[in-house]
# Entry
Amino acid sequence: MSGARSTVRLHRELYAEQAIADAAATFADFAKFAIRSEGDYAVVELNDIDTEAEGDVVAEFCNFALANTAVMRKDDHA
Amino acid sequence: MIFPGGNLNLMTHSQIESIDGATSTLILALDTELYPRDVLYAAAYVFIDRAYVLLDRQDSRYVVRFRAKRPIDEATMRGMAGEFENELLAQALRARVAKANQKLIEDVTALAIGGATARGGGAADGLVDLDNPGDDGFVADPGGLGAPWTGEKGRRE
# Structure
């Protein structure tokens, strides 16, 4: 771990809370996550990001949160 | 003129907010009234294997930010914007067709499964009685249709 940090703001209307939590759990080996609500947004603070990991951990986390939300919505409609 | 009396942005209600070739980043905005949110998810989902996609909402617009996973030029990014619009339309149509035909699909599926398993109208009406599959010839294979095409049979022929 290199101590790199980043903050992501995900609109709560567009990203399901559970989807964000699941994505954070998926990437738990690559960063430490702290999630809080701030107005319309879920603010995700990533600390100790593993900069040695392949790809962009922060952006991949966001993709996972989006994919999880899409899948959850689809399952809800099924 | 391909679209008489119209400008493309007015027609689609989406537009390119910015393109940054240096970071392979494209930002699109579209009217929230135009597409259901599920359509937006479905279209965005298609792109997550080749781009990092971030959704946001600003007033009455959805803002979609793409950053390509591999460097791409501006023309390719403009192409990606067009592909995204196409995907929105395709997903919207797909959702509409599915909704319109949902009852029909459910009825046909139930009829097919019910008929095959005899669960719907009794064993006499079904093709296969799952409680006694052998009686219906479900297990027996007198014609050898289940035999592999290769191997012994293949050599014999």
In short: Chain A is about 40% helix and 30% strand.
